[in-house]
Specification:
alpha+beta; Elongation Factor Tu (Ef-tu), domain 3; 6-stranded antiparallel barrel; 5 helices; globular
Length: about 290
């Protein structure tokens, strides 16, 4: 039975996700990765799954559809003081490209194997399963991360890939990594090729094979963005419990300007904007 329409889902991800959820739930949130628990969040019954598609700590929160707006409002109110902002699928896709997570239907399909896709760790070789005899630990091709030399050329999927000037593969998925300031693509390739080019918008762009997209040196990229070395992720014990009021004022004021310049189609926009305006006033009063 398809119950998709019966549930709403919000993903709470990021270094401050535990602090935000702890404000809304008295339940034990310490259950490990790839497990789920029934918890209560702001009086809303929620199935919380400890999974993430962006490479940071957090949960997928599923609730009955009739509680969707209530849970949204509670998460927004609890998260704004921590700098939380809503993110769409393109933001999620950008982060998963940087992390190296695969997308079903593009990077992995019924025609690829776990070992080809770099997911051999998920294979339980001690068990019997359909297709086990055909599965090989040493595939002829593997999914590789490509970082294009020109960050202004962004792949969307399906672009041709050449190795040493000869056709070799096609991009399975791609996009722009805003944190590493790079154009990222994935493709199945044989061995560890060095002379790789990708056809983007009628232009062949050189690319290098990386284990994972990363920023290497400070400076200014070809796209004009200032690059900095990535700071180390803070430990869970060292997380700061919120932003200073001065930073809150700047954050909320910037959001208010963005709201004024853009007419949101989301029906929750008036409530969101009113809430942000109130928080700006409160932060200014405390400052």
């Amino acid at each position: 039975m398809d119950v998709t329409s019966a549930y709403a889902c919000y993903c709470l991800w990021g270094p401050e996700a535990p602090a935000i959820l702890e404000r809304l739930s008295d339940d034990d949130l310490g259950f490990p990765y790839l497990q789920a628990r029934q918890i209560t969040v702001a009086h809303v019954p929620v199935l919380a799954q400890r999974v993430t598609f962006v490479g940071e700590y957090g949960w997928e929160l599923y609730c009955p559809a009739e509680y969707g707006l209530t849970l949204w409002d509670a998460l927004v109110e609890a998260g704004l003081p921590y700098g939380m902002r809503p993110g769409g699928y393109r933001a999620i896709d950008s982060m998963r490209l940087e992390k190296g997570y695969r997308v079903w239907g593009l990077d992995i399909t019924p025609e690829t194997t776990p070992y080809e896709a770099g997911l051999g760790f998920a294979v339980h070789e001690g068990k019997d399963f359909l297709g086990k005899e055909a599965l090989t630990r040493e595939p002829e091709r593997t999914l590789r991360c490509l970082v294009l030399d020109d960050p202004r050329r962004v792949c969307l999927g399906g672009e041709p890939v050449r190795v040493d000037g000869a056709p070799a593969s096609r991009v399975t998925s791609g996009g722009y990594g805003h944190r590493v300031d790079a154009s990222i693509a994935y493709a199945y390739l044989r061995g560890a090729p060095e002379n790789v080019t990708v056809g983007v918008d009628g232009t062949w762009v050189e690319a290098r094979v990386e284990e994972r997209a990363r920023r290497t040196t400070p400076g200014t990229s070809a796209s004009g963005h200032v690059q900095h070395d990535l700071p180390p992720d803070p430990s869970r014990e060292e997380r700061v419990g919120g932003l200073a009021d001065a930073r809150n004022i700047a954050l909320f004021a910037a959001h208010e300007r963005a709201c004024a310049e853009d007419e949101y189609a989301d029906p929750t926009y008036p409530r969101w904007h009113a809430h942000v305006t109130r928080l700006i006033a409160e932060a200014k009063a405390r400052a």
